[in-house]
UniProtKB/TrEMBL annotation:
The keyword Magnesium does not apply. It holds the Pfam family SBP_bac_3. Signal peptide: none annotated. Keywords: Signal. This is Ectoine/hydroxyectoine ABC transporter substrate-binding protein EhuB. Residues 35-265 form the Solute-binding protein family 3/N-terminal domain. InterPro entries: Ectoine_EhuB, Solute-binding_3/MltF_N. Gene3D superfamilies: Periplasmic binding protein-like II.
Amino acid sequence: MAALGALGAAGCSRVATASTTDGGDLLDRMKAAGVVRLGIAGEIPFGYIDKNGELTGEAPELAKAIFKRLGVDRVQPVPTEFGSLIPGLNSQQFDVVAAGMYVNPERCEQVIFADPDYQMLDSFIVRKGNPKGLHDYQDVVEKKAKFATGTGYAEIQYAVDAGYKESDILIVPDQVAGLNAVEAGRADVFAGTALTTREVVKKSSKAEATKAFAPLVDGKPHVDGGAFAFRPTETRLRDAFNVELRKLKKSGELFRILRPFGFTEAEMTDLTAKELCGG
């Protein structure tokens, strides 16, 4: 926590206002400075500070690989809460969101996304044996389960769409707090990504993760994709990032970068930001 606080204090200086000329000049300025500021949310395995005070996670490690190819050798983390990532990006607190953020139409109105570097289904944290038989959001509503999820998570809307009252949702900071809520009986279920839920319950004697499932959006199963986010003016940087991302996908290097963080081949994807933005 001390390391996180120190990095947060060090990383809060504001960057210069982005140019809107020819899709922005941020990439040129980052090359000149030799550093890119990454907004992270302290969420394992997406982007976090490890026990040695080092920046890691699937998004930061991918950022290191891609930005080095773009001529930017150093990454600097700027830790914040997940719900503050988009406001922080657009208020110039950092250059790019590197937090495995899901691409959805609401967020696409505020930022521009690279193409997803992974795809993901949802899963629940429940008590051992899943005593209430909770396997999807419809089960949560029908069985009047006490439902929890994380700050700013897409799972909030999935539960609401299934008929759960938003004001009744227990909002917690992250999956660790969600696990604690389930173990303590303050919630019957915590919803998160299949990856985060299966990782966080590994050492729990009281809770387990359910089988991954696709939430329903407009009555149809929906697969999410996580990606890097950029300010709307920085199309040139986003496009350059996408070029290198496609090369890493084609070579298999992307999977090699993500695999140590619990990702499987099933979570590699050819989804595009355009598809997930809804147009």
